[in-house]
Amino acid sequence: MGIAADIAGDWHAALAALAWQVEAGADEVIGDGPLNRYELAAEGRKPSVPAPAAPALPESVAAADPVQVAQAAAARARTLEELRSAILAYDHCDLKKGARNTVFADGNPAARVLILGEAPGADEDREGRPFVGRAGQLLDRMFAAIGLSRSSTDPQSALYITNVMPWRPPANRDPEPAEIAMMRPFVERHIALVDPAVIVVMGNTPLDALTGKRGILRARGNWMQALGRPLLPMTHPAYLLRNPSAKREAWADLLSLQERLRG
Ligand code: URA
Q1: Is 75 within a domain?
Q2: Cα–Cα distance for residue pair 3/16, rounded to 1 Å
Q3: More confident residue, 102 or 63
């Protein structure tokens, strides 16, 4: 195929050409001419250039447990900037390879309320900020209804927003337990550094990450304790977009949060 020769060596051009072909309906990769692989096997042909052996990893790296590496890196971070750098340098989570951006956080780090979401979606991955898509816009409207905003400079009315996963999972699938486990040390350090009065978890993934429990529809609205702080589980705004009748309960949860902050 002509394109291949023109773009050889240019990764971005190759990706664009591939995307264009998928857009045009290509769903299979074929060569220019037919190839009888049974004959090749019978002739016992070998590739002309033998594949190089993979370089051996140093023993300490090969043996590294991703959770332990995360724990050590998170513990070393003394500021939010250092924590952001530690996450950017963390290479044990495969989601990072497919993501355009590392989505760290948004809002006011002095806020009394920290919102913990699940993982970036396509919009967040593109912009590098949490909760900026449709669900995020609903989240902003929900909290604005009780006087809280991520753009507020007053800690009393401010929000700080982050996610369990800083990288978008492919096709927005749920993060896997191993992925949650390796990012948990960073989440815990993040919360310790922001030191909020209250944590609000949106959906099952952050509920699981902080309490080990799932079942957000049962848990929502029931105050719990996590990391020595009050924690309010709420249904995720993406769920509310799909199930508008659940907004009534979400409103009750917001009023409960407002009450707690006043108290
Ligand atoms: N859903 C989340 O949980 N977090 C985001 O940042 C966006 C959508």
Answers
A1: yes
A2: 11
A3: 102
CB of 104 sitting under 6 A from ligand 1: no
Token pair for residue 61? 């790296």
Through-space distance between the first and last CA atoms of the chain, rounded to whole angstroms: 69
Q: Is the CB of 121 under 6 A from ligand 1?
A: yes
87-111: per-residue pLDDT in tens?
Answer: 999 999 999 999 999 999 999 999 9
In a domain, residue 48? The reply is no
pTM for the whole thing? 0.78
Whether the CB of 136 sits within 6 Å of ligand 1:
yes
Residue nearest to atom 7 of ligand 1 (CA): 131
In the chain, DSSP finds a helix count (H) and a strand count (E) of 14, 6
Nearest to 99 by CA among 27, 172, 174, 160: 172
Token pair of 202, please? 């949106």
Ligand 1 centroid – CA 203 distance (Å): 10
Query: Alpha helices of the chain — where are they, by DSSP H?
Result: 2-7, 11-23, 37-43, 59-62, 66-76, 80-89, 95-98, 122-127, 134-144, 177-194, 204-211, 216-219, 237-242, 247-262
| 163 close to ligand 1 (CB < 6 Angstrom) | yes
Give pLDDT, residue 64. Answer: 87
Q: Would residue 134 count as lying in a domain? A: yes
Q: What is the pLDDT of residues 216-225, one digit of tens each?
A: 999 999 999 9
- Residue 147 belongs to domain with CATH number: 3.40.470.10
Domains held by the chain: number: 1
What's the pLDDT band for 240 if we cut at 50, 70, 90? very high
User: Domain span at residue 69?
Assistant: 64-262
Residue 31 covered by a domain:
no
* Ligand 1 proximity of 124 Cβ (cutoff 6 Å): yes
